[in-house]
Every structure is written in structure tokens, then in C-alpha cells.
TrEMBL record:
The keyword Membrane applies. This is YdbS-like PH domain-containing protein. The keyword Coiled coil does not apply. Keywords: Membrane, Transmembrane, Transmembrane helix. InterPro entries: YdbS-like_PH. Pfam families: bPH_2. The chain crosses the membrane at residues 25-50, 56-76. The lineage of its organism: Bacteria, Bacillati, Actinomycetota, Actinomycetes, Micrococcales. Residues 82-159 form the YdbS-like PH domain.
Length: 170
């Protein structure tokens, strides 16, 4: 993968698990199924004769447009997952993500207050977790989704130890 213009030079990015695509697809399916169903209700009501407004073309057009938008997002999910990465350096952790709007976040170990791991039902079923970093600034709370559970546990311990060492001034 070509290096983004905002990536620091000489960084080897570690990627999240490809299984994370499945987690994102399940989230996509649930969210879009509900959205398209709700937006299709006016079409059902118009066809049943319960409503005279909106016009039929609008009752068809809105859910159709949202379905096309949802399909576009579906196509982007694998690429979005491949764009997520992290790198451990001596003094900080780098986290990157984004396709169109790329972001590289630098979290100094000395600023970390605590490191949290969470896993929803789909993530647990696939052996994945999300690592969350909490700092003194609410704007820098960062996370790395889609980590294998073992890597998440290792990273949590590693980051906690480095954070404590930096806070102690070692």
C-alpha cells in the first residue's frame, strides 16, 4: 500500500485483522436494514392507499437513493479496514485510518491515563477486540478496532507499562 502523504517517514504499520471486515459488514447490514425498512414505510402506506402523500415517485426514490448510498458504503468497508493501522515507537503510539479523509494520530505514552479493551458479540465470536486509549485530553481518546484478542491484551499491557514508566519519569 502506498504511504499516505501525512505518514511519518520510515514507519512500518501493523494492520488490524482482516476478520474485522466481517464485524463492519454485520454492523452495516443491521443499520441499513433498519434504515431502508423505515424509509420504505411511506411507499407501503401509499401503495395500500392509506396515504395520498408523498407522491409515488418520492416514496420510491428516497429508499432507493438510501439503498444506493448503503451499497456504496458496503463497497468501501474492506478498503476502510485495510487503511487502519498502528505503530509502536519509543515514546509514542501512532494510529492511522481513513481513505478519503486520512488521519494519523500520535499518542505519547506519558499522556495515557488508562488503556481499555472491549469486544462486542460479533467481535468476541471472531476472536477480536477494540483497544481504547484514554488520555487527559478528551480530544485525543483513540482506539484501534479489529485487533486479535491476544494482540489486544499484549498491547494493553505494553502500553500500560510504557505509560507508567513515562509518568514516573523513567
Amino acid at each position: 500500500m502506498p504511504t499516505a502523504a501525512i505518514d511519518p517517514p520510515g514507519i512500518t504499520w501493523l494492520r488490524v485483522s482482516p476478520k474485522y471486515v466481517t464485524v463492519r459488514l454485520v454492523e452495516w447490514a443491521l443499520g441499513n436494514l433498519v434504515m431502508v425498512a423505515v424509509l420504505s414505510l411511506p411507499l407501503v402506506f401509499v401503495r395500500l392507499g392509506w396515504w395520498r402523500w408523498p407522491p409515488l415517485w418520492l416514496a420510491i426514490g428516497i429508499p432507493a437513493f438510501m439503498l444506493l448510498l448503503a451499497l456504496w458504503r458496503l463497497v468501501l468497508i474492506p478498503r476502510q479496514v485495510r487503511a487502519i493501522g498502528y505503530a509502536e515507537r519509543d515514546d509514542d503510539l501512532l494510529i492511522r485510518g481513513g481513505i478519503f479523509f486520512q488521519r494519523v494520530m500520535v499518542v505519547p505514552y506519558g499522556r495515557m491515563q488508562y488503556v481499555d479493551i472491549s469486544a462486542g458479540p460479533v467481535e468476541r465470536g471472531l476472536g477480536l477486540c477494540t483497544l481504547k486509549l484514554h488520555t487527559a485530553s478528551a480530544g485525543t481518546n483513540a482506539g484501534i478496532p479489529g485487533l486479535p484478542a491476544e494482540e489486544g491484551a499484549r498491547l494493553r499491557e505494553q502500553l500500560s507499562a510504557r505509560g507508567e514508566a513515562r509518568l514516573a519519569g523513567l
